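Protein Record: Sequence and Backbone Structure Tokens
======================================================
Tokens: labelled as protein backbone structure tokens, with as many entries as the chain has residues.
Question of interest: how does this chain fold, as expressed in backbone structure tokens?

___
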Amino acid sequence: MRAIAAQAAGLRRRIDFLIKWNPRSTPVEALAAAKCADASTVWTHPRPGKRECVWSERIDIEGLGGQPVRRVYRLCERVIDRRGQVMLLPEYILEGWTTTLPSAGFDEASVIALYADHATHEQFHSEFKSDMDLERLPSGKFDTNYLVCQLAAVALNLLRLMGQYSLHGPHSPLRHSAQRRRIKTVMQELMFKAARMIHHAGRWVLGLSANDRAATVLQGHYSLHLHPG
């Protein structure tokens, strides 16, 4: 947090942060008992046997240049687990998020939802690094590796567009309801094809399997988006 504040001061701009808090030394049971005894506590019930309460408080951290910091808490109480088994004793889980985002535009629910999106960000990072085979860059020169990353970004965007445009359709190789395809899945199902180069009647023909549904999807996508006329 101090490093972020120092960087913001050096750039002369505002930089907010949102960091997960570790409640390892917090007496969760005592805090839960106080929240349960407090009549002003607002509980939500996501499912039978589970309830949650959310609140925030102002905290002071040295070295942040007086920037206001708050911590958002979420306490979860379970008396029935996800499989429907009734517990002998309630289970309490405490989570927290430390942030400098203003409370005027970001309430407790918004802060929690923002941090929940970091898992999606990690997936995109994994796709760019692993699916595009960039764990090890090919050169010891920064300029060469920069060019490789730029070309990989173009390829990633094209594959992402192909995956999104061909996600739903009558011939799409869909195994389950999905909102997007991983880059690796797009390459395996749409790009990597077993085919033969056939020379017939003075022409070269790419012979694909007659039952290749993904080839039909790729052909329709190519005709629709690259040659709409």
Strands lie at 18-21, 44-47, 50-59, 69-80, 86-99, 196-200, 203-207. DSSP finds seven helices and seven strands in the chain. Residues 2-116 form one domain.
